[in-house]
Amino acid sequence: MRFSVGINYWPNRSAMAMWERFDAGEIREDFARIAALGLDTVRFFLRWADFQPQPDTVEPTMLARLEAFADLAAEAGLRTMPTLFCGHMSGVNWLPSWSLDPATPAGRFRTITERGESNRGIGDFYRGALLGAQLVFARAAGERLRAHPAVCAWDLGNEFTNLREPDDEYVAADWSRRLTKALEETSGIPVTAGTHGEDLTRDRNLRLGSLCASFAYATMHGYPVYSAFARNRLDPEVVPFLAHLTAGFSRKPILFSELGAPTCPGRKLSPFDRIALPDEPPTPTISPDDPVLATYACLTETETADYCTAVLERLHADGRLGAWWWCWADYADALRDEPPFDRAPHERSFGIIRSDGTSKPVADALAAFARQRRSVLPTNDIPLIADTYYYRTLPQSTLTLYDGFLRAVEERGGRAG
Predict the structure, then answer these.
(1) Which of 71, 107, 253, 392 qualifies as a cystine partner to 217, CB 3.0-4.6 A?
(2) pLDDT > 90? residue 316
(3) Angstrom distance (rounded) from CA 242 to CA 244
């Protein structure tokens, strides 16, 4: 099996409005460039309100666009991973208005529906009426893409615990089991779900062992700039460590389906090692006119390329299935006043392609690694016991395990980069 090198995708000109502003020409051009770099897979996202305007209705026009998207990928020789119930994306919870609960406030992340911003959060995402609606959507999407040659797996959601935490691990496990069954029956395609670093560094009432039991493999997302345990914004062991934890808890093969870094604008430097999360104290304000410092934690273009190579080398050496970069392109300047970029300017700069269409050095780094066409190596993962980890004091248990992980790396002779 080949180690997969892939990309997460939204178009430069429309970003999260891709489905309503669907431009097959732009997508075809992007896919040709992605394939030319040697990347093999595109992970993409189905904004929930676009596809399911009512709990019992899936929009036929959007299903046709979904199939067209997959066909364009097949034309370019690419595989895809559609991400359902999206849901959480780039610091915003994008939700159909019918999914909101009048008794639940929006919380850490603002809610945006087809009607605009709302002060409400989602209802019980994992059971009851909302699970029933998700099963309707999953079956419709599964039937539309049944056995499609460009679809390698379904993703049940992007960092879905940011929408709402399950009441307990058993509710989450039943949610994943029922949706996996529906998708496998209708499409014949395997399933996973986009878990993220906070599912390991905070107790989200989620346990990867039960959540991932029916999955083909587990996936994880992680970034030093969003990780409190990171030694610095360039720490190349953060992502391998999160993969290590995911493997130990899930007892599954691991695909790291999101890693990356925001790029510093121009020749500016990073003033911070971390981007403050919505429930943390904000970092000091840096003026956009500052001639030296960026307004957010970031990596220069050269740092990003070096970081990319260092992390991919580590994930490959640890026996992971692959690594998919976040994300394809910096977004067009015309989108700067649209959510999420109006409040999170760093979200515009994660791309391997600049907003003017030119390539960053990280694109060359990904291409160089992909062209080596490496095989997946054996793993040496050690099973971990969730009860011991979560029932100790977080984040201390994370810090303790990370220290041990780093010591083990050093004892094996360290790693370059």
Answers:
(1) 253
(2) yes
(3) 5
